Amino acid sequence: MVKPNYTIPMKKILILLFFCFHVVVFAQHKQPNIIFILSDDHAYQAIGAYGNKLISTPNIDRLAKSGALFNNAIVSNAICGPSRAAFITGQYSHKNGYKVNDGVLDTNQRFLPEILSQNGYQTAWIGKWHLGSLPKGFDYWNVMPVQGHYFNPDFINQKNDTLLYHGYVTEVITELTKKYLKDRNPDKPFFLVVGEKATHREWLPDLQDLGAYDSVKFPLPATFYDDYKGRTAAAKQLMSVGDVLTLKTDLKINQPFGEKPKVNNQPAKPAVKGKEIEESMMRYYQQGEYARMDSVQSKAYRNYYGQLAKEFAQLNLTGNALKEWKFQRYMKDYYATAKSLDRNIGEILDYLDKNGLSENTIVIYASDQGFYLGEHGWFDKRFIYEESLRTPFIIRMPQLPALKDKKVNQIISNVDWAPTILDFSGIAKPDFMQGKSFLPVLKNPQIKNWSKDGAYYHYYEYPGPHYVSPHFGIRTDDYVLVRFYKGTEAWELYDLKKDPSELNNIVDDKHYNTIKNELKKKLNKLIVAYDDQEALKVFNQAL
Predict the structure, then answer these.
(1) SS3 490
(2) 74 - beta bridge partners?
(3) Inter-CA distances, 29 with 142, 156, 227, 399, Å
């Protein structure tokens, strides 16, 4: 009788053993510390590790080299507050109730930090919060009201004290972060969110970074002069670099820089409290961000931007020349603001290394969504199109060393962040969370059928401030199908392989009828699965 041959090649055995070893090591490791650095409006295309060769982000790149970089991390609603709400609830906007900015997040629902706290974690959020209500479920929090300020920012802590800290916001956040790490209970794991203000509009660089990129002439994006043919919603927006960015407020030409409030020079030390802080806030709303600067800060800004104003006046620009000048100034201020962000991320990583925390601390870097850096002629975000839909997402996990310098192409969404963080610590995902853990992707980046039905998106804010029509849609590896339903009522379809810039709306191309119908079925399936009743009503009416 011939015996069957069960011989397995040695190479396959070694790969299997290697994978199993790391899964066992991860499972047996004690609960990891988790630091989630969440920036604001920081585009993936503004990072060296994502291919930008004109600027420098050595510390974010350093994180990518020691971890995994996601090329298809997307958000469910590309706007600041709703993105944060999706993060801490694991739910889409229609479920957590925070659909547009400047609302108030309902704190009667359960949040990620509460679940972590119930399972042995100490939890904290430091920096930008931007969810209307005060943080809930965190053992410690120290957050900025509304958008926060770049210079001499106000913070509210869990004692309900409102304090003003002297200095540049990114450095203040880093000092508060290091203080928390020093003062925490060393016998318990921690979950810490570092909420950065950078790189939000208006872009105010740290004093040491003024002019950091003045020697660079940034190339115009190929789509800068997009004519929006076949894309009605894109044509109606108010996000144009050339027409919407203001010379005085955004680009700081002929902007007076105030000298109040007067505070001490110690970073991360309370300086103003009570009634005085209310007066400081009033100065901000009456006079703008620049009224918060002290004499040293305002002098540096007057000197730098005053010289730019003189040069600009001599140019006497109009038409496309003016638009392109605005683009250059936008890029120089945006990247200079990001320079401090990167530098301070390096300080946090250095602190972990120096204090023996790196070995058991997962570090994640992400932005609340992507951002337009002149693509389609725009700044800001909101659209389902790639530059705003995709966010940078980098994760370093010492528990999975095989992830070092890996590029991951699987689609993940920000509603998946909370379930994944729970999975890191062996905590079951609660039923209310709509996302799913992508830990299986981290264990095996080549896993099949991870997002076979694509990812769901729904944007709501309209008409202000940028007149982007509300829309929902599906993003797969190869296609984007979207339905605009207010302001503009239209379907759009894009073939991402043939048209990565999304210039050619092929929704009426008969050659794509089969694909379009399949995508509509998948989109309907997601709408029903996530119980988005508003989208379901629009979808059915649009058929």
Answers:
(1) strand
(2) 390, 413
(3) 30, 36, 54, 7
Whole-angstrom Cα distance, residue 334 to residue 337?
5
Euclidean distance between CA atoms 478 and 207, whole angstroms: 43
Q: Pick from 163, 146, 172: which is nearest to 276 by CA? A: 163
Alpha helices in 254-318 (DSSP H): 275-287, 295-315
3-class secondary-structure state, position 54: coil
**What six digits make up the tokens of 168?**
């540049």
Residue spans of the domains in the chain: they are: 33-204+327-541, 230-326
Q: Check residue 36 and report its DSSP letter.
A: E
**Residue with tokens 């039923």, as numbered in its chain:** 431
Helix or strand (DSSP H, E) at 475: strand 471-475
Residue-wise burial string across 326-357, b where 16 or more C-beta atoms lie within 10 A, e elsewhere:
bbbbbbbbbbbbbbbbbbbbbbbbebbeeeeb
Tokens of 532: 């988005």
Helix/strand/coil for 389: helix
According to DSSP, the β-strands at 361-367 and 393-396 are antiparallel
DSSP structure string for 235-270: HH-S-BTTTTS-TTTTS-TT----------S-TT-E
d(CA 324, CA 225): 10
Nearest to 307 by CA among 258, 251, 254: 254
CA–CA dist 162, 76 (Å, integer): 32
**What contacts 5, CB < 8 A, 6 or more positions away?**
none
Give the span between the Cα atoms of 117 and 189, in whole angstroms. Answer: 10
pLDDT in tens, 26-80: 444 589 999 999 999 999 999 999 999 999 999 999 999 999 999 999 999 999 9
Rounded distance, CA 347 to CA 72, Å?
27
How sure is the predictor about 288, in pLDDT bands with cuts at 50, 70 and 90?
low
Examine residue 189 and say whether the peptide bond preceding it is cis (omega within 30 degrees of 0).
Answer: no
Mean pLDDT value across the chain = 90
CATH superfamily, domain 33-204+327-541, is Alkaline Phosphatase, subunit A (3.40.720.10)
Model pLDDT for residues 219-228, shown as the tens digit of each residue: 999 999 999 9
- 304 three-class SS: helix
Q: How many residues does the chain have?
A: 543
How buried is 524 (Cβ within 10 angstroms: 0-12 exposed, 13-18 middle, 19+ buried)?
middle
In this structure, what DSSP letter does residue 292 have?
G
